Amino acid sequence: MKRKKEVSVSLVQAAPVLGDKAANLKTIEGYAEKEKADLIVFPELFLTGYLCKDELPRLGIRTDGTEITKLEEIASNSGSHIVVGAPTLGEKGELYNSALLIGPKGYIGRYDKYFLVNFLPFEEKIHFHEGKGLQVFDTPLGRIGMLVCYDIFFPELSTALAMQGADILICISASPTLSRRFFETVIPVRAIENTVFFLYDNLIGTEERLTFWGGAKVVSPKGFELAKGEYFKEQSVRAILDMREIPIARAGRPVLRDKRSELFEFLRGL
After folding, report:
1. Backbone angles phi, psi at 62, to 5 degrees
2. Is residue 53 part of a domain?
3. What's the number of CA atoms in the CB half-sphere (13 Å) around residue 72?
């Protein structure tokens, strides 16, 4: 597959309308038309809003549903790859907190949040099933791996995606203000330790007691900040990823080459 040497990205930090998929799809469409980027990212559960709670089973979507068809139309019209968070339904009706990836040629795949948050004020295990399996998606923009929010604090997850060939790791998030310092500390670390471009996109706005801080960020494989969003402000955060930086970073600091897979076997046995 022929890949682009430079990839334009736009991270949209915005507040979804809680429970209104049609309104949020319209927001996605508006940004896609305006941004004209190779890759446009929207935060965790942006399609519905984060705190839908008991409404989630009704709002959950299937990967062959009308919402995916609309996202495919948006991606086709804009020529962009789109990442967006949504509650998705499994074969037996089980719910997942997912990151969807749609390209100009259609639906590519989804990642289901691996590590659910279940400490106050979060209750994700009440509503969602844990994700299983990790996949890297091969696209003309590069090989993309996805994470959802709390997943960022488990370094083995990012490393597993990088060892599968990810060039770009995208973490979509619904992080409230009390967590800001923790996220901002580990974002550049995940980029450096895996020599990948790391993209972080977070909600803004308030849902019940949670206030989301925004602060979207793009970090290079050497840990340099390429772009950062303001706090609490709706905006798109733009950057250009020079994909030629990846082999240079990996030659200078060959952490992926030097990983020892037996450590993963050890973790599996714990």
Report:
1. -105, 155
2. yes
3. 12
Residue 184, in any domain of the structure: yes
Task: Please tell me what DSSP assigns to residue 176.
Answer: B
Number of domains in the chain: 1
Would you list the DSSP string of 44-94?
TTTTT-S--GGGHHHH-B-TTSHHHHHHHHHHHHHT-EEEEEEEEE-TTS-
* Domain annotation covers residue 1: no
Answer whether residue 11 is part of any domain: yes
Share of residues in the chain with pLDDT > 90 (%) = 91
- Look up the CATH number of the domain holding residue 122: 3.60.110.10
243 φ, ψ (degrees, to nearest 5): -65, -15
Amino acid residing at 28: I
For residue 127, what is the enclosing H or E element?
helix 124-127
Q: Is 34:64 a contact under the CB 8 Å cutoff?
A: no
| pLDDT tens-digit readout, 34-73 | 999 999 999 999 999 999 999 999 999 999 999 999 999 9
Residue 137, pLDDT score:
98
Quick: pLDDT tens for 202-244. Answer: 999 999 999 999 999 999 999 999 999 999 999 999 999 999 9
The number of residues making up the chain comes to 270
Question: Tens digit of pLDDT for each residue in 101-136?
Answer: 999 999 999 999 999 999 888 899 999 999 998 999
What is the extent of the structural domain holding 200?
6-269
| Inter-residue contact 145 to 120 (CB < 8 Å) | no
**How far is it, in rounded angstroms, from Cα 108 to Cα 98?**
13
What 3-state DSSP class applies to 246?
Answer: helix
CB burial of residue 257 (10 Å; 0-12, 13-18, 19+): exposed
> Which structure tokens are listed for 110?
């989804």
